[in-house]
Amino acid sequence: MPKDLVKSEMSALSPDKQIGNVGILSEMSERSDIIRQIPAHDRPMEIAEVLKLADELIFAKTGEHIDYLQKAILEGTFQGRTYPEIAEATHSSEGHTRDIGSELWQIFSEGLGEDITKRNFRAILEKAKFDNFSSAIGRVGRDYVAINNLNICQERARSPTEPQNPQPTSKQPQIDLGDAPEIFTFFDRTSELSTLENWITQEHTRLIALLGISGIGKTTLSLSLIDRIKTQFDYVLYRSLRFSPTLDATLTNLLQIFSQPSEIPQNIETKISHILDYLRKYRCLIVLDDVQMLLGSGQLAGPYKTGYEDYQLFFKLIAEVCHQSCLILNSWEKPREIARLSKDNHPVRCFVLGSLGVAAKEILNSQKLSDQETWSTLIDIYQGNPLWLELTATLIQELFGGRVSEFLQCEMPILDEGLQSQLSQPFGRLTPPELAVMVHLANQPEPVAVSQIFNKIPFSPSEIVNAVRSLGNRFLLDTQEQEQITLFSLNPVLKQYVKTQYLSN
Ligand SMILES: Nc1ncnc2c1ncn2[C@@H]1O[C@H](COP(=O)(O)OP(=O)(O)OP(=O)(O)O)[C@@H](O)[C@H]1O
Ligand SMILES: [Mg+2]
Questions:
Q1: Which CATH number fits domain 174-352: 3.30.1380.20, 3.40.50.300, 3.90.190.20, 2.30.30.140?
Q2: Of 52, 225, 232, 396, which sees the most CB atoms within 10 A?
Q3: How far apart are CA 310 and CA 57, in angstroms?
Q4: 313: Cβ contacts below 8 Å, ≥ 6 apart
Q5: Mutation pick for ligand 1 pocket among 183, 219, 227, 289 (CB with most ligand atoms within 8 Å)
Q6: Whose CA is nearest to atom 8 of ligand 1?
Q7: Ligand 1 site, residue 426, Cβ cutoff 6 A
């Protein structure tokens, strides 16, 4: 997609590129004791009051509290800083800072009924006697907030008597789970569910990557999460991207939920902007599953396939643009931009799903296996991976009469044919250096450091380092720290798979 077009849509909101008024914040803070003694209407504003007002207005408009960058822009403007200076101080791009700034001025303009820009922001607030605005927020009607006779954001209005983190209200969401699998049994994952719920409902995380090796339970967990928190949303949607739809197709599909087919725009930039509008207007929870199908095969983990790069921009916008919704991406590879965005103060999080732990015994129980005292060993070997355990349990039931101890007497681990074909998918995506690292590690009795792989396989150190990193992003390596050295190894199932597929001749 032509990125400039989306960018120009966003920056069309940026009417103001001027330097703000020079503030007197530092003097003010030195004089704070004196200021407290001056009647409110006679003294200059304090930044804390501005931030409080901003938080009220932003919450009323978006349902979210003021975030780090918005705060930095207001403080910077108050201090007479330029956008480039604020961007540098917050490690954000200048364009993004300007976009967020222009959204802020728009919120202030709507909320206060004045045409507010970066240039006149401080002067207008001073002139309008901030305390009048502030107290006006207290006039809460039945279903609106009036600020200087201006009603704002009916559906998001919040009384100042409400707690900082209001309890979510129960909604009748519109739910469309598309072709999501039906979940018949769901064991444990209690702490995973509460972490994800907290990120979404308390921390207002906009983008979550739910990551982990195939079969570990991402789809099942995300559907269970939907069931748990659906009443806090207006729309709950699930779509699998297993057939690699283009971004255009995915957006069209999602827009059909919100609007009539005739209202869906033709060009992709407008589709993106419509989706963002809906994510702002409604509280939506959207799960996009099987995101790895958008990522390239035969290259290091992370980048998108040719023709799918615009998803990267879309996910970035979801993370950066102000809205009240959450997008969850399930994938067995970490998309490249997610790591960067989560480090960049954006409301973005990664959750790497691991073993089901002791709850995996329920899987063995449901398959009516015997020899319970040996179940922990079986779960350890198969990494608490629900799919691997389900497949192996079926095998034990069919060939060993359900007796786990008899099965464990075989040379471990035995890989069911279904399990092997499951593993062939991630292995089919590896680059030659990655495959060489896997084969080398499969032959090692003990974990090894990256430097110990140098000169052992016919690739340069930098190719090996990048391969190891990429394998980590595919969740194919086990790591451990020993005397301040990171050591890498393969779990027994992957080791056995590599030996069977690549070392048997
Ligand atoms: N918590 C759980 N309780 C019971 N069964 C589970 C649980 N988690 C996963 N399973 C079972 O394990 C199998 C794999 O789960 P799921 O499809 O969710 O994995 P996945 O991580 O989405 O895999 P993939 O990446 O291949 O799509 C399914 O049959 C599912 O029913
Ligand atoms: Mg899945």
A1: 3.40.50.300
A2: 396
A3: 33
A4: 1, 3, 6
A5: 219
A6: 217
A7: no
| pLDDT for residue 310 | 94
pLDDT digit string, tens, across residues 130-174: 445 444 343 322 232 333 333 333 333 333 333 334 444 566 889
Residue 476, C-beta contacts closer than 8 angstroms, at least 6 positions apart: 213, 426, 438, 490, 494
pLDDT at 146: 33
Token pair 């090796």 in the structure block, residue: 213
Question: Does residue 125 contact residue 45 with C-beta atoms inside 8 Å?
Answer: yes
Mean pLDDT to the nearest integer, 477-501: 94
How many angstroms does the Cα of residue 184 sit away from the middle of ligand 1? Answer: 11
CA-based R_g, the chain, Å: 27
For the chain, the farthest-separated pair of C-alpha atoms sits apart, in whole angstroms, at 88
- Distance (angstroms) between ligand 1 centre and the Cα of 283 equals 27
Q: Which atom of ligand 1 is nearest to the CA of 181?
A: 17
Torsion-angle region of residue 420: left (phi > 0), alpha (psi -120 to 50) or beta? alpha
Q: What is the DSSP letter of 147?
A: E
Domain ranges of the chain: 3-156, 174-352, 357-414, 421-502
Give CA angle at 28 (119, 45), nearest 5°: 55
Spell out the SS3 assignment of 201-259: HHCCCCEEEEECCCCCCHHHHHHHHHHHHHHHCCEEEEEECCCCCCHHHHHHHHHHHHC
pLDDT tens for 28-86 read 333 333 333 334 444 456 777 778 788 888 877 777 778 778 888 888 888 788 888 88
Token digits of residue 291: 């995101």
Burial (0-12, 13-18, 19+ Cβ within 10 Å), 149: exposed
Cα(476)–Cα(284) distance, integer angstroms:
33
The residue contributing the CA closest to ligand 1 atom 15 is: 217
Hunting for tokens 């709850």 — which residue is that?
359
Pocket test for ligand 1, best of 387, 391, 421, 474 (most atoms within 8 A of CB): 387
| Ligand 1 neighbourhood includes 387 CB (under 6 angstroms) | yes
Q: What is the pLDDT of residue 127?
A: 64
Residue 167 C-alpha from the chain's centroid: 22
CATH assignment of 421-502? 1.10.10.10
Nearest ligand to residue 223 Cα: 1
CA–centroid distance, 493 to ligand 1, in Å, is 17
> Which residue's entry shows tokens 């048997």?
504
pLDDT in tens, 32-41: 333 333 344 4
- CB of 187 within 8 A of CB of 359? yes
Residue nearest to atom 5 of ligand 1 (CA): 186
Question: Tokens standing for 236?
Answer: 């709950």
